[in-house]
Amino acid sequence: MAQNKYDLGFARFVRDNVDGGDRMNMCMQCGVCSGSCPLGDQMAHGPRKLFMMVRAGMKDEVLKSNSWQSCVSCYNCVVRCPRQVPVKYILQGLGALAIREGYSEASNSDNSAFGKAFWATASKSGRTDERAVTVRYFYGLGGIGSLFSKGMANMSIAMGLIKAKRMPIFAMPDKVKGTADLKAIMVKAQEIQARHGGAGE
Ligand code: SF4
Ligand code: SF4
Description:
CATH topology of the largest domain: Fumarate Reductase Iron-sulfur Protein, Chain B, domain 2
Bound molecules: iron/sulfur cluster
Distance between the termini: 39 Å
CATH architecture of the largest domain: Orthogonal Bundle
């Protein structure tokens, strides 16, 4: 027997388990979010359509979609939504859900590689260091080959940042005072996230 591709409990699950999901039923499908999104033309489904797919129970398509992977957290959709739907947070939550559910599209995505690189530096020092984040991110995309090819492809951007004094070459990475306290906070945060079924690091 053919498997039903629609999961009719999916919308309820998203409402109860995804940050901001409880406001998704306020969406009136006006399309302001999709029309305001600078990455809209890169998304297979804009936020408006993605929310309709959630309602329709298209769990697989939603969790494999590149929509939440393409979001750059610019908040245009959040500030413009006439119904105060926290669009960006819902997209982010759907991404976390996709990782929890083991979708390879999520764990192998650019967003995932960038998130891991960001987390690795920010959680250790309390600061992000462009050099460390970039190296980890490019490496995470495909190892040493990716680090080299992406590094070369983005060299002019790096040179621009160095020239504008936005990225030091030789200075030691900055860090907050009390990194032991930071570590304790991070451990506690991960415990709380795990209790709520989060994906963790
Ligand atoms: S802007 Fe808000 S109400 Fe309009 S489609 Fe997007 S989420 Fe729904
Ligand atoms: S926060 Fe994400 S989804 Fe919203 S407008 Fe910006 S890029 Fe698009």
